[in-house]
């Protein structure tokens, strides 16, 4: 592609540079407007500087990607309400056999849930779980936070819905869901295993120094607190069952309605009245033993007998109210269990549909709407949890990257690299992987995919159709695992870092250098071994 006029090249490069700075450093001092506004600013400048026309800007927005992203976010909201992530937290802490076992569980669960529910969602909901479990066992948090973030990135590479760059690749390449999974799954599984081994090798001594007896003065988080973090448990009855003594007292009160006749002798009447008075918890005054007036005895006995039945009726009514409330609560509990089961079945149906090759965007949107209808409530509170700022960020990014492509700079740079990055030999694959690794950490993985995707695929298509598919999968694998290289490499890393820092009473700061020291060897080894397994 020929270079655009010099003015367009300069203005287009300036617009892209502003977008890049604000995307990588959203709180930059001279313009702290954040990633979303920075993305829109870059898009607006591309149009104002006439690098692209307004119609070209609208056409650059990839609606299928936005639809798939929106659908998966809504599905994640309903999965959260259905306690899916609470159950994942329980699996983490259930019968743990020590810190190494816990670390392996975190890696496995993080990878699997990221492949199904996106890496960002997994990191959002599991970070505080991990912090609480580490504190419960008196363990240093950073090995487990690194395991969570890195495994989430690796695991998300296995499916088109695992992360945003895979969404873009799946839509642009038109590779089916099943073929995508089959192509990358072996590399993902081996990558997760290697990642576990690297973390264990780096922190073996630290994880082996766990105290057999935890410090008695340390505030240990209860297991129930770990298991119930963030998500409300199923509705339980607010009424406790009556204990046997209270129940017997109620029954004695009710039985007073059939008390014996008092038309006997004076002593017999006196004793009967005292027995009845005791059975209603001293609410009836005792009849004086020194009374000698028969009329007074008769009057008091009538008063007692008139009071007892009313108390018995009130007790019966109270018991019925309690039983009715318990029955209602039990019915609500079963109703919620049925709703959760239906949510899981709908999600299973979505995965089956994706494996069958149905349109991924409309499958995700249909699933989201099916869950909203199944909920049978106003969907607005659930839809408000969708990250619309992320969708807007993608819109601005599509326009900005398309404008930068039209300057001709990416095409000319690729023309220089293409002869050395052919995927039909090992050297070419290595060069391509290095380029993707570098750009993914320089410009972030999604812009890298947008810049390189079509060019890498076209170059591979000239070799064979199978190589074209392999080129897309290599791009997906390397751009995703590249996120583990540094703390700024992926949004999932930043989410874990921020969630850990701001966690109430559990705050922990994961430093850039501590992550970098682990990220470099992990990224290089996992990427290299995984490339040999991409089909």
TrEMBL record:
Membrane topology term: Multi-pass membrane protein
GO terms under biological process: transmembrane transport
Regions crossing the membrane: 6-25, 58-81, 180-204, 341-374, 386-404, 425-443, 473-496, 516-534
Localization (cell): Cell membrane
Main location: membrane
Superkingdom of origin organism: Eukaryota
Keyword set includes Metal-binding: no
Protein name: Citrate transporter-like domain-containing protein
């Amino acid at each position: 592609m020929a270079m655009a006029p010099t003015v367009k090249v300069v203005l287009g490069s300036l617009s892209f540079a502003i977008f890049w700075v604000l995307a990588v450093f959203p709180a930059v001092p001279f313009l702290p407007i954040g990633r979303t506004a920075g993305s829109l600013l870059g898009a607006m400048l591309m149009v104002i500087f006439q690098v692209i026309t307004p119609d070209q800007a609208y056409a650059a927005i990839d609606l299928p990607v936005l639809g798939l992203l929106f659908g998966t976010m809504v599905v994640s909201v309903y999965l959260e309400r259905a306690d899916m992530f609470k159950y994942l937290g329980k699996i983490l802490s259930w019968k743990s056999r020590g810190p190494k076992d816990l670390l392996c569980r975190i890696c496995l669960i993080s990878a699997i849930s990221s492949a199904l529910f996106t890496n960002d969602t997994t990191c959002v909901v599991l970070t505080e779980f991990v912090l609480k479990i580490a504190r419960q066992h008196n363990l240093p948090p950073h090995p487990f936070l690194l395991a969570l973030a890195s495994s989430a990135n690796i695991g998300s590479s296995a499916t088109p819905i695992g992360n945003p760059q895979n969404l873009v690749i799946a839509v642009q390449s038109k590779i089916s869901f099943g073929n995508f999974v089959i192509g990358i799954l072996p590399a993902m599984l081996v990558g997760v295993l290697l990642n576990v081994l690297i973390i264990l090798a780096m922190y073996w001594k630290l994880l082996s120094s766990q105290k057999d007896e935890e410090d008695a003065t340390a505030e240990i988080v209860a297991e129930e607190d770990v298991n119930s973090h963030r998500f409300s448990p199923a509705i339980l009855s607010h009424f406790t069952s009556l204990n046997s003594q209270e129940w017997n007292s109620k029954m004695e009160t009710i039985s007073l309605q059939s008390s014996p006749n008092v038309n006997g002798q004076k002593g017999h009447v006196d004793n009967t009245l005292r027995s009845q008075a005791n059975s209603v918890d001293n609410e009836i005054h005792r009849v004086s033993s020194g009374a000698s007036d028969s009329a007074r005895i008769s009057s008091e006995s009538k008063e007692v007998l008139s009071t007892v039945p009313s108390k018995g009726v009130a007790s019966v009514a109270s018991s019925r109210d309690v039983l009715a409330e318990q029955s209602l609560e039990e019915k609500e509990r079963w109703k919620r269990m049925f709703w959760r089961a239906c949510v899981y079945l709908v999600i299973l149906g979505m995965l089956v549909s994706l494996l069958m090759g149905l349109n991924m965007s409309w499958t995700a949107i249909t699933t989201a709407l099916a869950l909203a209808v199944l909920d049978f409530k106003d969907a607005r509170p659930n839809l408000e949890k969708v990250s619309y700022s992320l969708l807007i960020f993608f819109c601005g990014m599509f326009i900005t990257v398309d404008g930068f492509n039209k300057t001709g700079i990416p095409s000319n740079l690729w023309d220089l690299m293409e002869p050395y990055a052919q995927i039909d030999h090992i050297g070419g694959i290595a060069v391509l992987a290095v380029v993707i690794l570098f750009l993914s950490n320089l410009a972030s993985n999604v812009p890298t995919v947008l810049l390189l995707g079509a060019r890498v695929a076209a170059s591979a298509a000239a070799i064979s159709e199978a190589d074209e598919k392999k080129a897309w999968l290599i791009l997906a694998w390397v751009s995703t695992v590249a996120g583990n290289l540094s703390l700024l490499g992926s949004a999932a890393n930043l989410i874990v870092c921020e969630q850990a820092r701001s966690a109430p009473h559990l705050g922990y700061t994961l430093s850039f250098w501590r992550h970098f020291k682990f990220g470099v060897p992990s990224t290089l080894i996992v990427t290299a071994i995984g490339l040999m397994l991409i089909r």
